[in-house]
Write a structure and sequence with these properties.
Layout: H1 2-9, H2 12-19, H3 23-37, E1 42-45, E2 48-51, H4 53-79, E3 86-92, H5 97-109, E4 115-121, H6 123-131, E5 137-140, E6 153-167, E7 186-189, H7 195-206, E8 212-216, H8 220-228, E9 234-237, H9 241-248, E10 250-267, H10 275-288
Parallel strand pairs: 3-4, 3-5, 7-8
Antiparallel strand pairs: 1-2, 5-10, 6-9, 6-10
Helix pairs in contact: 1-2, 5-10
C-alpha cells in the first residue's frame, strides 16, 4: 500500500501525511520493495517522485489488486446476510452539518437501513480512504480534482443560493434594501481558504459592501451557535434555511442566488449500484436541492 500511495501522490512526504506514518518508514519499505523487485521503482524529478518503467508496471498490478480486493469484499458482504449492512461515508469539513444530515436521513429511514458510519475530514484525506475502499462515498463541496490517479467519479447532488441570518431580536437593525443592509454589519464568515468565503468576498466587493468581520469559523454548527448568541450576521445555504431559522430561532435578512454552493457525491462507481448511494443522490436532486 505504501508504494501505491506514494505513486499516486508523487511524494513520500504527502504519503506520510495521508497514511499517518513517518517518511523514514515509507522510505525503508520502498527500498525493501526495490530490492524484492530487483529494479528501481521511482525516479526523482525535482522534489517529486515519478514512476520508472518498472514502477509503472508494478503500479498497474497494484491498482488491479486493490480493485479485486474491493470486489471480493463486496462478494463476501453479499453472502453474509446475517451481518448488518454498513455504509461508510466521508464528509468534507466545509459541508454544513444540516446539509449532511438532510442528505443522509433517507438512508436511515429505509426499511433495510444500513449502519451509517460517518467521518469528517479534508477532501484529500477522504479521497485517499476512498481509493483504498475504506469509504463507500465522499460528500464534498467541490468536485474531484483533476489529475489525481484515483478511480472515482463525480455525481452532482445540486446547488443552493445563500441566505443571511440574524438573531430575531436584532432583525429590525437590518431592515431595508438587501444587500445594502449588510454594509457595516458585524459578520461571521468561514475562515480564509474556504471556497464559500472566497465567493462571498468577491460578491460583496462587487457590490461595494463592507461588513465588519467579527469571526472566522469553519465549523458550521459553531458558526450558527455564535449567530444565535447575537455575535453577528452569518451566511448559510438557502436549501436549509427553514431548518436553521427554526432550530436556532433566527430570521432571514436577505438571500442571493449570485453566490451558490455546489455539492457532489464522489464514489468509486461511475454507474451507481450501491442502493444507499443511489438513494442519497436521488433524494438530494429531487427534494433537498430541487
Amino acid at each position: 500500500m505504501y508504494f501505491w500511495v506514494v505513486a499516486r501522490e508523487g511524494s513520500i512526504a504527502r504519503a506520510s501525511e495521508i497514511l499517518h506514518i513517518t517518511p523514514q518508514t515509507i522510505s525503508g519499505q520502498l527500498k525493501l520493495l526495490d530490492a524484492a523487485v530487483g529494479d528501481r521503482l521511482f525516479d526523482r524529478s525535482g522534489r517529486n517522485l515519478v514512476l520508472s518503467s518498472t514502477g509503472r508496471l508494478v503500479f498497474h498490478y497494484a491498482d488491479e489488486i486493490f480493485n479485486i480486493g474491493a470486489e471480493l469484499a463486496e462478494v463476501v458482504r453479499g453472502h453474509r446476510e446475517s451481518a448488518p449492512k454498513v455504509l461508510m461515508v466521508g464528509i468534507v469539513e466545509a459541508i454544513p452539518k444540516l446539509v449532511a444530515s438532510n442528505l443522509l436521513t433517507p438512508v436511515l429511514e429505509a426499511d433495510d437501513a444500513p449502519v451509517l458510519h460517518c467521518e469528517e475530514a479534508p477532501l484529500d484525506r477522504l479521497l485517499a480512504e476512498l481509493a483504498i475502499h475504506k469509504l463507500d462515498l465522499v460528500i464534498s463541496d467541490q468536485p474531484l480534482p483533476s489529475g489525481l490517479h484515483i478511480r472515482a467519479f463525480n455525481h452532482a447532488l445540486g446547488e443552493s443560493g445563500i441566505s443571511f441570518f440574524s438573531r430575531k431580536r436584532d432583525w429590525q437593525k437590518y431592515k431595508g434594501d438587501f444587500p445594502a443592509n449588510l454594509d457595516g454589519a458585524p459578520m461571521l464568515l468561514p475562515a480564509k481558504g474556504n471556497v464559500l468565503r472566497r465567493r462571498l468576498e468577491e460578491w460583496l466587493e462587487s457590490r461595494e459592501i463592507h461588513p465588519v468581520v467579527v469571526g472566522e469559523i469553519n465549523d458550521s454548527a459553531l458558526l450558527k451557535a455564535f449567530g444565535q448568541a447575537g455575535t453577528g450576521v452569518f451566511p448559510a445555504p438557502t436549501a436549509i434555511e427553514e431548518d436553521i431559522a427554526q432550530m436556532y430561532s433566527l430570521r432571514v435578512i436577505g438571500r442571493t442566488d449570485e453566490v451558490r454552493e455546489r455539492y457532489y457525491a464522489i464514489s468509486p462507481e461511475q454507474r451507481l449500484k450501491h442502493p444507499s448511494v443511489v438513494s442519497i443522490i436521488e433524494s438530494a436532486r429531487n427534494h433537498l436541492f430541487a
